[in-house]
TrEMBL record:
Originating species: Pseudothauera rhizosphaerae
Keywords: Signal, Transport
Signal peptide limits: 1-29
SUPFAM superfamilies: Periplasmic binding protein-like II
Spans traversing the lipid bilayer: none
BP-aspect Gene Ontology terms: C4-dicarboxylate transport; transmembrane transport
Superkingdom per UniProt: Bacteria
Protein name: DctP family TRAP transporter solute-binding subunit
Key word Signal present: yes
UniProt-listed Gene3D superfamilies: Bacterial extracellular solute-binding protein, family 7
Length: 342
């Protein structure tokens, strides 16, 4: 079925249910408001577990007046489709990676992709739990999207089928990336060949050699079995993957106040939960990848880490015109990051 008509049918169904609610209140009142929450990762990941926690709390706090349907692993919408579906109201909740908002025209989020810009979760929280992060979410409003929260995944590692000890080891390698110009520039900077690809296509592309390597969090590697098609992982922690939990603004603002208040409460608690378990999930995944014996895991030496930082830091300057000098500066000020210190 053509993608557009599939979204439109879902849209008409949803709008009809909402439009009729007040008229036939007694009969339909029993019918819960359905929130479809679509995402592209597995259930046993920070985001997957966060979405299920939100479902549990939202249904409990609204005494069943709301039903949350979670669609994991791109089963409902793949990367590129999900934002359009949200804007059309065919799905009510998403949590795309901050790397995937460029196509929507909100380039500021790509600042999160700058290599080594966050030297840990504490620095990150100064942005995601502070005014800078709130200002970024507000930039979604004109797109008909409401930013509800930031959810963590973690810091990325690099992988390929040959050892990665220095940036030169990736020269000429085809590397899968998310749809971000900053990530494209990051790999071009070290003479690798970036390939934008939907998350759901990564395993097969590595298995068939369409791409040679990629970058991601270990939780995403393990839960998508990507480690089974990559012989070498280096724990570079060179960049960050996190999410913006978003909804359709008209839908959310149109909810009965009581319902919205309870959903906000559920979202607040699910956010604390998701961000608390994120590191744990990645640590567990790393042990599982190690135990699988399928992939050689390398911790870079201090000298190797410095070589990656030196090779990738110029991307910050090169991306000023794309992401915005003021945007990058706002992160530096919020976190105390000083590129000159490297
Ligand atoms: C990716 O495409 O690699 C990630 O954004 C997937 C995800 O949502 O963690």
């Amino acid at each position: 079925m053509k993608e557009h008509s599939r979204i439109r049918r879902a849209l008409i169904g949803g709008a009809l249910a909402l439009a009729l609610a007040p008229l036939a209140a007694p009969a339909l009142a029993a019918d819960p408001i359905v929130l479809k929450f679509s995402h592209v990762v597995a259930d046993d990941t920070p985001k997957g577990k966060g979405a299920l926690k939100f479902k549990e709390l939202a249904e409990r706090y609204t005494d069943g007046a709301v039903k949350v349907e979670v669609y994991a692993n791109s089963t409902l919408y793949k990367d590129k489709e999900e934002l359009e579906a949200l804007q059309l109201g065919a799905v009510q909740l998403l949590a795309p990676s901050l790397s995937k908002f460029g196509p929507l025209g909100v380039r500021e989020f790509e600042v999160f992709d700058l290599p080594y810009i966050f030297d840990g979760s504490d620095a990150l929280r100064k942005v995601t739990e502070g005014p800078v992060g709130a200002a970024f979410l507000a930039r979604l409003d004109p797109k008909g999207i409401k930013g509800l929260a930031y959810w963590d995944n973690g810091f990325k590692v690099l992988s390929a089928n040959a050892p990665i000890r220095s940036p030169d080891d990736l020269r000429g390698k085809k590397m899968r990336i998310q749809s971000s110009k900053v990530l494209e520039e990051q790999f071009r900077e070290i003479k690798a060949l970036p390939q934008v690809m939907a998350f759901s296509e990564v395993y097969q592309a590595l298995q068939t050699g369409v791409v040679d390597g990629t970058e991601n969090t270990v939780s995403n590697y393990y839960t998508q079995k990507v480690h089974e098609v990559q012989k070498h992982i280096t724990l570079t922690e060179h960049g960050y993957i996190g999410y913006a939990v978003i909804t359709n603004k008209k839908f959310w603002d149109g909810l009965p106040v009581e319902i919205r208040t309870r959903l906000d409460q559920a979202m607040g608690e699910a956010t604390v939960y998701a961000n608390r378990i994120a590191q744990e999930e990645n640590d567990k995944a790393l042990e599982a990848v190690r135990a699988s014996g399928r992939t050689e895991i390398r911790t870079p030496t201090e000298a190797e880490r410095k070589a990656f930082i030196k090779a990738l830091l110029p991307v910050h300057k090169k991306m000023e015109s794309r992401v915005g000098t003021a945007t990058i500066k706002s992160i530096y000020e919020a976190t105390g990051f000083d590129p000159a210190a490297f």
